[in-house]
């Protein structure tokens, strides 16, 4: 319990570093905001619920962006919530634009900044193809890196720039808040010869950075793994590699592995129940509106389904039911070929390899 | 147009077709006076009737006989008579004629009782007769026949000469007849007017039915009053300069295509240009005495200058090509016109023809040969009034329409400006945020700025003219058209505060928003719900719908059957998922149509599949206190209800209850997905910031206090063992000598007492 780290800091510093203060502040803030309602069912109950939801990661739902990005736990929770809520969109096989993904993000966090979504899209797409469609998984993993390590990536960008321009990268790095600076590509003639920077040198700088960095950064060992495979690489090459790295995803812990991305049996079951319920709801409404004679047959047909569902967790033979396995999806949807690419690397216009 | 009708009008049913006479000139058979007497039978009312009858029959049965000038109305008699009497007075002749004497010139069938005799004379005056006089002229004009009458005849008809149907190809030289006043060359083959320049006293010259191609040879005939050139081949009105006292000019049945060279004929009363090739009527200035103008059977499409004819009473425009009243509108300005015909024109087929004419030409007494009754006039004025009203109404309508158009333009412009501003601000911000070299700031700046003045300039110039009289400050438009309430511009939203009649409010089922920020619409949705409870169809165009979450706001309405989001100005429509999201979020409305497309069961299920988890997560995983705060007061009741049933399994509750509860549940699990407008949200964020600041300070204080206490506690904990040891040591030392300690204790006790 008493780690050496703990002893190195004062109590206050420790609490701050572990973001306990953040949650305490937020809890009190929430309490203040809803004091009438909360006083009805007890302040102790409120704190219990609050910290429970923090543990479960549901505390970030519909919260303001400043809170969502305040702690790594919040970020991971948000990523997980995004994945859980919109997994179905990806499962359906829809390819969406950056703007549409941004809209989905905004459904969970109304003031989510567009800039961040743009940056995430830039990892997936080339600069000149920003309006292209992206698959859910591509976007999600890129977004994960961009969102979770956002400050780290700022610093990395600065380092990369310095390396490109030949400066000594071990000078003090001041992360700038500017968004576009690191987008600069090396001058043309040089670039064709030697694009990007040397991996080993880059790694040294990053290792240095990870040591000093007060924000969360990917485990240095994994960064090393990423960088050891290549001689030279570009900034975006690095980001793509990061986003595709299983280890980093696992270390982050918010999302399942890429292969299991569409897999969430508990939620699927819940969804099945919802769909059936909505169908019943609609038919019953229609029934109320129409004469029973004209619609009797259809209604009967549809009323039968929900009766079976609560008892049976086994799949119902509904024509609308989704198959949870991707392999089935491939054959079942017209987007099959695309989904096959999900499993294998694919050359697609505007996409980075 | 049956003759019978006219018969009854004329009052005389004489069916005298054989009567080819229109002007009957009778000699008074008073040889001692040596004069042709034109007797004017003023007191013969039967004549006009009969003549009219005849004329009409010819006109309407055969559509011929156009040369006839018609003056059938007895009312016109007086004017006619006066003019004719003028002639008689001037001529010193007594004209024995009907009241409609003028009509005769059309037909030019003047007959005299002396015809046969003159014809004989003519015969004798033919080229093969009176050869003894040929010598006189043969030296100069050898080919012309020379005419000479017998002295007896000369005495009998000293002032007239009729050379009708003599097969003349040229005008004969008429010698020794200087006193001649009336000369008749009807029905010959004369091609050129010649050899009559010496007849300077000539008053009446009749060249009807010849082959004359040009008016000429008349310059010396200064006293000529009646010139009849009907049924010739004249192409141009010319060489009439000296005929200043011309009273009647008949040019019917020629090939004249233009009215010209007549402006000096200030005494001309009758002009007949029927059956020519006129395409229009103008150049009528100067004809100050003209009372009758016959223009039947031309190709006239429009009439001008008629209002410059101060004496014009009768105008015949039958069988022309007049199709609008506008093309003859100058007629309305003529004060003297009393008789007009338009039959056989396209205009006469129009339903509005009669009353329009009557209404515009109050001075008219007779139209298309029919006397205008008071009743007709009254009818016409009633119809005209109605028409006027209708016109005014339509004008008002079109004005309103125009105003609407302009207002919408104006609103659109404002909207564009606003959008431009927004985007340029965004661009600027973007630029500031990212000092990226790849994003060329100049280009961005330049494009937005250059787009500004150009657009406003063009719009301004286009609008400035039309906008006169209309207020330019109109920045919004509210329109109720049937069951549709259309709102343009954000100002229009204020109209929802107005007191709408129950009827209007009940009728409106479609509400369309154009050029209004969606965020502004959101704020009035509660009002809309109250004021227009029946609104089922919402339309949005140019409303800046950019996010899916904005649709959440619509959930608060009572009912929506149809939703139409125009892609114009609503980028959200370009999204793949927007329809499903709308269906999902507004599923409690059971919408029928989205953007005109029927919603199917499959759509609903798809929507549920895509977003059901979101709703589920939102409703089941939010901590209670958050749910309550998100749902707000209005939803609390429902929420409690939900809470009560949440624990129970669906199967436990009976069917009907289940249904209703599910309904509530469905509403609630979606209700967590709501939309706050940007402004409001920013306000809220500010508020939260404030609260956070306070909380931060509060927590800081608390934590500091706590850590301090903790530190003290720790220090105490650290000190405590040593302190305890010291205490024990002291105690042990104190009680080591038992007896002395006891003594001390006893001492203390006694001291206390």
TrEMBL record, chain A:
InterPro entries: CSTPP1 (IPR038968). Keywords: Cytoplasm, Cytoskeleton, Microtubule, Phosphoprotein. Residues 282-323 are annotated as: Disordered. Interacts with PCM1. Interacts with TTLL1, TPGS1, TPGS2 and LRRC49; the interactions link CSTPP1 to the complex TPGC. Binds to alpha-tubulin. Belongs to the CSTPP1 family. Regulator of the tubulin polyglutamylase complex (TPGC) that controls cytoskeletal organization, nuclear shape, and cilium disassembly by balancing microtubule and actin assembly. Regulates the assembly and stability of the TPGC and thereby modulates polyglutamylation of the microtubule, which antagonizes MAP4 binding. This is Centriolar satellite-associated tubulin polyglutamylase complex regulator 1. The gene is CSTPP1.
From TrEMBL, chain B:
The keyword Cell inner membrane does not apply. Gene3D superfamilies: Ribonuclease Inhibitor (3.80.10.10). PROSITE patterns: LRR. Keywords: Coiled coil, Cytoplasm, Cytoskeleton, Leucine-rich repeat, Microtubule, Repeat. Residues 104-115, 436-450 have a biased composition (Polar residues). Residues 104-124, 425-451 are annotated as: Disordered. The keyword Repeat applies. GO terms for cellular component: centriolar satellite; microtubule. It is found in: Cytoplasm, Cytoskeleton, Microtubule organizing center, Centrosome, Centriolar satellite. Its main location: cytoplasm. It holds the Pfam family LRR_9. Part of the neuronal tubulin polyglutamylase complex which contains TPGS1, TPGS2, TTLL1, LRRC49 and NICN1. Interacts with PCM1; TTLL1, TPGS1, TPGS2 and LRRC49. This is Leucine-rich repeat-containing protein 49. The gene is LRRC49.
